[in-house]
Fold:
Amino acid sequence: MIYQIPYIAVVALILIGLYAIIFRRNLIKMVIGITLIESGVNLFLITLAFRKESTAPIYHGTGSRLMSLPVPHALTLTSIVIGVAVTALMLTLVIHIYKHYKTLDARKIGMEGDEE
Amino acid sequence: MTGELDLLAELLKHSPALIVAIPLLGAFLTPLIGKINDKIRNGFAVFIVALTSFFAFLLANDILSNGSIRTYVFGGGSALTDGGFAVRILFEIDGMNAFMAIIASILALAGVIYSWSFMKENTGLDKYYTLILLMIAGMFGMILTGDMFNFFVFLEITSIAACALIAFRTNQGKAVDAGFKYIVISAIGALFILFAIAILYSQYNALNMAVLAREIQLTFLDKIALALLITGLAMKAGIVPMHMWLPDAYGRAPASVTLLLVGATQASLYGALRMTSTLYGKNIVGVIKHADFNLFSQVVFDITLNGVLGFIVILLAILTIFIGVLMALKETNFKRMIAFAAVAEIGYIILAIGSAFLAVSSIDSVTSSAVLSQPGYMALKGGIFHILNDALDIGLLFLVAGAIYYTTKETSLNKLGGLARNMKYTTIFFLIGLLAVAGMPPLNGFASKILIYESTYQVNPILSIIAILCSILLLAAFVKVFHSAFLGPKQEKFDNVKEAPKSMLVAMGILACIIIFIGLFPEYVLNNIVTPAADALVNFGNYIHAVDSNYVISLIGGF
Amino acid sequence: MSGMSRIVKTVTNITFPLVLIYGLYVIAHGHLTPGGGFQGGAVVASGLAMILVAYGSVWTMGKINEKHLSALESVGALGFIGLAFLGLIFGTWFFNNYLVGDEFLFGEIGKGLANINTAGVIPLMNFAVGLKVIAGLFAIVLVMAYATRLKEGK
Structure:
């Protein structure tokens, strides 16, 4: 049972993140929701790499032990980098939106008519 | 003479990597060159895109004429290690990849030439050209790759660059809002795709598309992975009900950016096609549920994967076509109306693909390909042909809308009028685009739409009737636009409106010439460009054989 | 944004070199221990953000020109792509590791456990990526601080 807890945490994180994006109106809370989903997927990737009683996949010359898979670690690292870039971009857009509309409510922005 | 041929062969061997690497190099050199002079930077960007297009056409010519599949392993070495593990990233190019590469290079070339004069009055153009080149590199990477995680990385590169370009006019609040909506939906879709990739990796210990295609069975986790993949890629492609970002993003971005966004949307659609036909190709007739019950007699039938997929896809396609056309009829903003027409055109593509899915009857294990009935094969060819035509037609319409915005600074259809006297060439281009979108002969829309009408008629006549009706409604909407914007009495405030600048006319001319060429010679394009692509999608065995040479297929291919 | 008190500034003066050295260590040993370009660059950028918070954005923007950061970032990225293209010219494939087994720069194989002189092109690419990440992340933080300062100033 103890080895199933990370998977339950992954599903919980993703569901909370989706709830925050769909049902919250503050833009910053939407950004936090995307960060939560991304943390959930990263946790899922790392949990898949684990084997029972394994150590980090680094050679240190004192005999061989069971090592966890190194490929998901690389995938998680790339995903974290992409997450940093997306979060920085979203926060910059939120700064611009606040400068323009003076509010962070998602239902009040972008409503100026396109027909004019 | 042999020296030249050797050089050409060397370039051809390395062209998959060069197609992605040259725009990256250009993107990083652009800020340094922009410090020197502005015109040199613009010329440098056009030169880089022209070089990339040259390599893309060279590669496509080789692939489409030979029918062979090329692989390129990054860092040298063989594709599979001794134990049969695929640990290196590789690009794999078959007919479908070459077809999409042709589309992407045409759109990229037109976009960069157009933005020479369209963006002249904006500041911060260093960053604009850097982002355009990054987006082009990301699009080509998405199209050419043969590795799942590499596809995800290039998908994110394209989304981030596209979002920054949509919100490029930061003085307009609505453009920034459109960019924000785009990046939220893009990020969620991409994270779903990453989740699916993680599930597939945990089951089969491979990230390579060919190795996964060899190994996948339809277990419960694989079905979840397929559902997540299709949902994520459908979010990026703008299929109803995830199309909310499309009118805003297409309508409020600069026109050259919209052209490249059309390319990015088509690339995501290509990704969905590749995942379902090649990755799950072996299981496309796999049974999901075996049902038997007693009605009046014993009724036994199988619910297969292609049946479920075809049914859902056709349902979504009908919804997409309806919503696209109905919303386009009531719009008064020029670019938003064309954006809704773009949504409807994606619906046509998916209608054809869904019909092709329904028509798969079995898997030929001798040649490792799917066996389609003849109408299904025609539907597949019509859908793929329509990807090319849709990109060209909608792209031309967006460029015309951008030209009108550039000269008159107006976006609302209520305030435009009588522009045909001042802008003759633009009017002609809009007329060509209008007839092409509505499917009139002798332009290219007719060729692909008649394939779609004929093949969906065999599946269910009602689908064909709906498709023809909505096409007529689209024609009506565009004729209304043409009348209100171009014809009609002259207005005083448009007295000194001049014709669009030369580089914009050149870009629109390129697209229009290709549209007329495809319209006049559809047989040539269909036999030489579209049929290899459709064959490549159906024969997934060739895809696997290019990486794993021990995978046995017989030499008799096709139908 | 104005700076913080004198105590915070003094502690920042002492800890920033330590953070810098640690970050450069993580970048340089990327092929042996966990770490590499992005991780070490993020550590150094955190140290620079610490300076930004302690001394205030006005002082920091007076000392660092944003155009230099942009140029530094381009140099880092060009180094990375240039090394990949050199793999095409010297090796025979794009991204090829042509310095391994060469005894030239980072080419030794084996010869001890914590030998930095191994793995060919990879440490050079780590330096290029680390430079780009330092410049890029610091530019993001700096521009955001500057944007909020402008909003307060209005």
Remarks:
- Chain A has three helices and no strands.
- Chain A touches chain C at residues 56, 58-61, 77, 81, 84, 88, 91-92, 95, 98-99 (CB under 8 Å).
- Residues 5-52+68-101 of chain A form a domain with the Helix Hairpins fold (CATH 1.10.287.3510).
